[in-house]
From TrEMBL:
Keywords: Hydrolase, Magnesium, Manganese, Metal-binding. Its cofactor is Mn(2+); Mg(2+). Mg(2+) binds at N19, E47, D156, N158, D253, H254. The lineage of its organism: Bacteria, Bacillati, Bacillota, Bacilli, Lactobacillales. The record marks D228 as: Important for catalytic activity. The record marks N158 as: Transition state stabilizer. The keyword Nucleotidyltransferase does not apply. Belongs to the DNA repair enzymes AP/ExoA family. GO terms for molecular function: DNA binding; DNA-(apurinic or apyrimidinic site) endonuclease activity; double-stranded DNA 3'-5' DNA exonuclease activity; metal ion binding; phosphoric diester hydrolase activity. One of its GO terms (biological process) is base-excision repair. PANTHER family: AP ENDONUCLEASE, DNA-(APURINIC OR APYRIMIDINIC SITE) ENDONUCLEASE. Probably binds two magnesium or manganese ions per subunit. This is Exodeoxyribonuclease III. Residues 16-254 form the Endonuclease/exonuclease/phosphatase domain.
Length: 263
């Protein structure tokens, strides 16, 4: 059962997404206290950086699903959910893309929920060609799902879409996460029937970021990037009740983002 959060007589699902930059590391930084305080119906993680059995979590009331990278200490995703899914799948179903534990899909009667950790293009954009191959495969995957039922996908998508989505767009123009190719790729994804929930509700909000470098006191000065998203099928736009960035929560170089969706 989903938690009974009521707003104007409407039942609301609370979803959280967080790139924890190492689940074992963030567990030492009060993760469980934060997890319990947020009390989400769905809690999605990226960059768990762990293998099976390295962490055993006691999360009463939650089902736990993990996708591990083959490379140790790298990538990885997880979803903790109060609602039992109809089906769970891991990856995109494409062998070349399914070694790094980047996607988990849960199917429910009325929608699909995905957590995603998009590959980083890396310094000097040396992994950009692979990143764009990934983007195309992911677009096709979520488009196919959306032909069956509504889709909600979240995670560290490793792109700041517009200049408003990072502090220093001019100096970062050709850097990973803000290259023209990556931004155009995300535009293409949205054009295929998807909505960036935060920008839908807050089209002009500035200084709203979800990731800050550990260098140069970036978080202290709020010199950040918004690269963590909740994206929903366009048919769910009217069900978006709130989309927020929880910048006061620490423990990672990312902060959690939240989506409240009516059902």
């Amino acid at each position: 059962m989903l938690s009974d959060i009521e707003m104007i007589g409407v039942l609301i699902m609370k979803l959280i997404s967080w790139n924890v930059n190492g689940l074992r590391a963030v567990l030492k930084k009060d993760f469980l206290t934060t997890f319990k305080a947020l009390d989400a119906d769905f809690f999605c993680l990226q960059e768990t950086k762990m293998q099976a059995d390295q962490v055993v979590l006691d999360l009463p009331g939650y089902h736990q699903y993990f996708n591990y990278a083959e490379r140790k200490g790298y990538s990885g995703t997880a979803i903790f959910t109060k609602a039992t899914p109809l089906n769970v799948s891991y990856g995109l179903g494409i062998e070349v893309h399914d070694h790094e534990g980047r996607v988990i899909t849960l199917e429910y009667p009325d929608f699909y929920l995905l957590t995603c950790y998009t590959p980083n293009s890396q310094s000097e954009l040396k992994r950009l060609p692979y990143r764009l191959e990934w983007d195309e495969a992911f677009r096709h995957y979520v488009h196919e799902l959306s032909q069956k039922k509504s889709v909600v996908f979240c995670g560290d998508l490793n792109v700041a879409h517009e200049e408003i989505d990072l502090k220093n767009p001019k100096t970062n123009h050709h850097n990973a996460g803000f290259s023209d190719a990556e931004r155009a790729s995300f535009t293409t994804l949205l054009s295929q029937g998807f909505t960036d929930s935060f920008r839908y509700l807050h089209p002009d909000q500035t200084d709203a970021y979800s990731w800050w470098s550990y260098r140069f006191h970036a978080r202290e000065h709020n010199a950040g990037w918004r690269i963590d998203y909740f994206v929903v099928s366009d048919d769910l736009q009217s069900k978006i009740q709130d989309a927020t960035i929880l910048a006061d929560i620490y423990g990672s170089d990312h902060c959690p983002v939240e989506l409240d969706l009516s059902i």
